[in-house]
Every structure is written in C-alpha cells, then in structure tokens.
Design brief:
This protein has 242 residues and is of the alpha+beta class. It contains four helices and ten strands, in the order ββββαβαββαβββα. The longest helix is centred in the last third of the chain and has 30 residues. Bound molecules: adenosine-5'-diphosphate (ADP).
Length: 242
Amino acid sequence: MSESVVLITQDGVRLDGRRIDELRPVKMQVGVLKNCSGSAYIEQGKTKILVAVQGPREAHPKHIALPGRAILRTRYHMAPFSTDERKSPAPSRREVELSKVIREALEPALFLEEYPKTVIDVFIEVLQADAGTRSAGITAASIALAEAGIPMRDLVTAVAVGKVGGKVVLDLNEAEDEHGEADMPIAMMPSLNKITLLQLNGRLTRQELEEGVNLVKKGIKELYSLQKQALRARFSGAQVEV
Ligand code: ADP
C-alpha cells in the first residue's frame, strides 16, 4: 500500500474513469457447462471467473458423510495464467483460506439439511484476476448453486469497498487494491439484509466503515438484480448474456 500512485482525482474520478460509487462493468451467465448440475461465468471489469457445481451426490468415502445434512465443499483456484506473473498451479495458502472463507459466506444461504449424507462441490476457477475475485466468485457461485436446484434462503451477493486516496470507493480493481489504503470485501443475503462475510485489510475509521457498508449495499443491489436476470435468462430458455 503506497501513496505515490494517484488513484483518484480531487473531483473523485478514478484511474479507470469510474466515480467512487460505481461498479466495474459486470456480465453474468448461468448454465455455461454441460457436465455439472450448475455453472456460471462472471466478468467484473478484468476479473473473469468460471464456477461449476457438482452434486448433491453421495459422499465418498462414506465416513465423511454427515447424517443430518449435505457437506458443502468449495475450491477456489487461480489458473496459472490468471495473474501477471505465472502463478503456481499448486494450491497456495491464500487459495486454501479463500476456499474456506467462500464456503462460510455461502453456507448460511443453503438448506443443506435437505440432502443428508451427500456432498455438494463448488469449483471456483479464476481465469483472470484483477482484484475482487473472492467477491465475484461468491456472486457467481450463488447463481450456479441456484441453477443446481439447491434450495436457498436467498442468493448471496458480494463486492468489496476500499479506501483509495483518502476516499471510500466501491469495487476496487487491482491497482486500487495494491496501492490503496484499505480493502473490505462483504457478502450479503440481500433480501434478508444479512451479512455472511466481512473482511478488512487495512484501516478505516468508524465513519468510513459505515460509508463503506452503505456503498457495498448499493453495489450489491445492482449485482443482485443482475444475478436474478441471469437466472431468468437461463430458465426462460434464452441463453443470452446479460
Ligand atoms: P481478491 O481477489 O478477493 O481481492 P486479494 O485481495 O488477496 O483477493 O487479491 C487481490 C488481487 O491481487 C487479486 O485479485 C489478484 O489480481 C492479485 N493477486 C492475488 N494473488 C496473486 C498472485 N499470487 N499473483 C499475482 N497476483 C495476485
């Protein structure tokens, strides 16, 4: 995190031309893979992620099965070609941690008790990383799980806010994440107004934190509407990008 890069002008215009409260351009598509029970593709700015859901299916080996509910397994993985410098395909500590964080963000929305002794796998493949990958991964995973027919309390929608050049801004890109002062990814069940993930890297005052949560809610409202549009497009039979 450094101060030397001018990330935002006095008038509040960011390097990529966005205002402080604007998301990057977002595209979502549901039902992009044939060998899965659910799948989704998301682009958020230059971040590109593919999510595949398999299951619910019988848990193997049998001893991992839980009598009263399905096990949710999530794997967050960055492709070797997803970053500027080749990333080792072996799972890093960061990927192991993000897999867990993403699982915990999704789990509260799912009625896992409807599928005892089974396992549901969620594969999150980051094809191109430009910050916000955990958030975009959660947003896409949630619509892939919906396509798989897993009953849900609500979708889960996520986006980060952060602080750059002293201003609280929505949906950081990689330059803002790298050179900014703070990064705070948040996931919510929007209709239930419940937060399922909140992390903070860096420092924010209490007022900035409140400002951040309000900005996130604005972004999540827009993303939630795109998620529902993508699901409608899938189930109306029209495979159109939204
Ligand atoms: P998130 O992608 O959820 O914002 P981080 O804050 O950990 O997660 O990472 C921010 C960004 O930094 C990533 O989206 C990616 O663009 C970049 N990044 C993360 N890990 C690596 C890596 N191993 N090599 C190159 N870039 C990386």
